[in-house]
Amino acid sequence: MNPSLLTREALGQFARESRAAFEAELKTLVEIPSISADPARQGDVRRCAEAARALFERHGGKAEILETSGNPLIHGWFGEDPSQSTITVYNHMDVQPANEPEWTAEPFSFVVDGDTYRGRGSTDDKGPAVTALFGALAARRAGVPLNIHFLWELEEEIGSPSFEGGLNRHKDRLKTDAIVVSDTVWITRGKPSTPAGLRGLKGFRLTLETADHDLHSGVVGGAARNPLAELIKVVATMMDGETGKVLIPGFYDDVVKPSKQELEEWAHAGFSVETFKKDHMITGMRTEDPIKVMKRVWGRPTMEVHGVVGGYTGPGIKSAVPPRAEVKLSCRLVPDMDEHKTIDLIRAFVAKHFPDVQFHEEHGLAPFKGHVTGPYAEAIKDAYRFAFDAPCSFTREGGSIGAVKTMEDILGCEVFFLGLSLPSHGYHAPNENYDWEQASGGMAAFAHYFETVSSFRK
To answer: Where in the numbering of this chain does the Peptidase M20 dimerisation domain appear (predicted)?
Structure first.
């Protein structure tokens, strides 16, 4: 191994020399609209898998497309020496839809604006994925004795419905000593953070039908039932819209509260309410207390209303009583909550108090309690410190990554996080972006991580 290549100066030079190639590869992937939620984009999802396989091969690696019952997985790797340890980096190549009117450029056109890269998927999750790949190229050039594998998914944005089956089908070829996920968000720029846990997710819908057509409110109003009004009452009975508190008995029974040590680390993690509001463009908050915000986003379960469907929504007012209505909701879950127990509790509550309301269960993702001790966790912290000259905080992630617990359960190894995205990058938002500072620093972080863990012999 040539250790000089893995100094910060040498890795900075590697990043500068690789910038054009990095941007070209990211452009190729961003300009493929791999929207897993849109059946009309299935051809683009397949095209993205083919492009990803070609990317690995173009840079001297090997790659294969692994079929599942749904969208395929991409498995790429550098090195296959059985005497060396193996590390797998997980990312996803599918993206959210991009139909928001606020986009200032075509969402699937890769725009370079100085050191900023714009386009759907640029930060979630194609930019971090390509960054990790270039970190691997730097480590391989230096002769780091490590088998570096990549597992890229194409269904993460729809809850990974085929991931478990695909992983079981191909687990023999995906054996690894540890997994690193690069699909998480720092608290703010200059303050690296890595999750000590992820919230789970469980969606459901409520529907109510009381007639077969619109009714004239002057003729039947006051006598006919109004399904929109009734479903609004259902929601208000289940949760306090002002505070967000869930009112269903037993909902919080299994919640594991953050420990005193966790809260102390959160308090010194650099979180700012003002920055949080600015990054997410929030104009109103339920609380302005920093520790309460962190508890609510990272350490407490939620119930959220995502949409209300029914009645007239055009200009002006149509004075009709709607025949049917629907409310779309979900809960974010924290350790040690169980998605099945939680949804059964909600279903039973609705059935008891509102027997006419139909309950429709949607997909779910289990919460995940991460690892904050041991050599792999220390290697993550050291990689951030090396590349970004700042200590890393173990916080939690408010979002969900369904693949994480599945990988631990099936592949039998621990999962860690080396995320690179920032709140200002706009996960799932219009004008999503990534930037060269995070990319170049991320290459150094991954290269350093690979070098460190290469000494962890089997």
So the answer is: 197-356
